Amino acid sequence: MEHYRPKLQSAEDNDASIYWLSLLSTSLGVWPQKLVGERKVWWKRLYYFMIFMHWYNTYLQVEFFFHNFGALKTMTEGLCSFCSISLTGVKIMRLYSFSDEINMMLNKMRNHEFMQKITFLKKGKNREIFQQFGQIMKNKWKEVKINLQLYSFSVGVTASSYSIIPAVINLINLFQGSSEPRRFVYKTYYRGMENLKYYSPLHELLFCSESLSGYTTFAGVIAFDGLYVLMTMHVVTMFKSLNLIIKESTSAGFTDEEKQLYLHECVDHYTRAIMFMDDINKIFSPILILQLFTSTSIICVIAFHASANASEGDSQIFVMVVYLIAAFYQLFQFCWYGQRVQNESIELPNSVYDCNWHQCSKKFKTKLQLFLLNVQKTVDISAYNLIVMSMETYLSIVRTAASYFTALQTLTEE
Description:
The protein has twelve helices and four strands; from the N terminus they run E-H-H-H-H-H-H-E-H-H-H-H-H-E-E-H. By secondary structure, the protein is mostly helical.
């Protein structure tokens, strides 16, 4: 009997794939506590400070809405940032509460624990299978690394534009001696300080506070969304490897008893994949329903605000366009990787049917038929068991946002 053994330093290579994700998230206090390591004391203080500032700035945006209640155009200016940072606050707290579970899942992934549990007969084509396993894992981590780098850059540009653009405009107005009021990062209302907030040093302190919330949002988004991508890709690789074992289970070089042994390994590996999938849904599913609602609102509101102010040439339009692109990208991330899991699970029945089952014993065929009945059920990631994360859902969200955008325009014209 043999077991798959990953290459030396494989775990370190996997860690390198998510290095920047963990570094950025840890430095801003939003990485799961169990993954921080020896720096837990200072990190916990940083976490509480960052989460407090985050929710404080969320409260200031709520004050803005109540202060401008009834002014539709003014309210929509701050709605997208409010939806984003409030949802990110929930995501950060979710990661913190599931720190132990996430740490356990990541350790299983980085050490290829699921692959090493599969038992192989020495007289099989193990070398070829192990090479294919290694290539599947290598491709997974490579795709994850490229995706997270691109995604971090996209979200980082969006978060930075909210603070850098108004800061630059404030500096230009200062040097030109313009009397235009100083700008802030978000649309907020400071009760009792509205007349004082434009004067130094209070303006600088409040501006830094809002900027801090923006970068906490950036770190929280890439941490939560990045872990979602990483874990769903692992399920995809587990299903891909299962297809290889299914084909090997009916090899002509095995006796009937040995074929049944391989079939039991297929069942066990499939069970482990489903259990891992259940853990992913447990962590992410409740947040995904909020994500879909938030993405719909953000896409609709940003498109409405950009079209309503396009003729004014305000710098805020640029921020809105960047935000709109990032919102589409974020929604695509969740739906695309949910679709990937679906696609691989759909391939499993085909692999079972395409193997050389017709050359096997009746007992093997009976067990294989039972296995086929199990894998025919499509495995998917759901948003609180209500909406399946897929490309069909993505297109549905875009169409819904477009219809809401049309309704807002009509309401404004009336």
